[in-house]
Amino acid sequence: MRGIKILLAFVLVLAFAGQATAQSTISFDSGYPKTGSGSGEIAVQGSISLACGWSLSGTTVTVSAWQEGCMVTCTTLSINSCTNTFTGSIGGLTSGVPYSVTVEVAVTKSGIPQTLQNSANGVNPK
């Protein structure tokens, strides 16, 4: 009887092992976002990792700066189509004031539109 229980558990594990799906992500590179080179700027740099079956819906990411839950400004940055990376800055911010920075990209998975998002808190522009 114990052998049947072990066999049943093994069969269940095999049956559900294929149910886990890989996820796509958008992320900031180490050290980013960070204080930008110009006054009121925050520099951003990162990459998009696409799992099998996922694709980019466009050629840009949207970067937003937030303060106390309200969006202050946003900009779009081009995606390097060879490497799925992005780099640039978001400006027009108040120097020395901390912001939350969010990056988003539109993707599709099996034809269904989705949005990948990542954020960082407490970033101060120059």
The separation of the N and C termini measures 70 Å
Overall SS class = mainly beta
Tell me the total number of β-strands: 9
Helical coverage, percent range: 10-25%
Q: Report the CATH architecture.
A: Sandwich
The residue-averaged pLDDT reads 87
Radius of gyration: 20 Å
Please, could you describe this protein's structure?
Helices cover 13% and strands 50% of the residues. By secondary structure, it is mainly beta. The chain has a single domain, classed as Immunoglobulin-like (Sandwich), CATH 2.60.40.10. Strands 4, 5, 6, 8 and 9 form a five-stranded antiparallel sheet that branches. Strands 1, 2, 3 and 7 form a four-stranded antiparallel sheet that branches. The protein is elongated and about 45 Å long. The chain starts with a helix and ends with a strand.
Topology:
Blueprint (H helix, E strand, L loop, with lengths): L1 H16 L7 E4 L5 E2 L6 E8 L4 E3 L3 E8 L2 E9 L6 E6 L8 E11 L2 E12 L3
Antiparallel strand pairs: 1-3, 2-3, 3-7, 4-8, 5-6, 5-8, 8-9
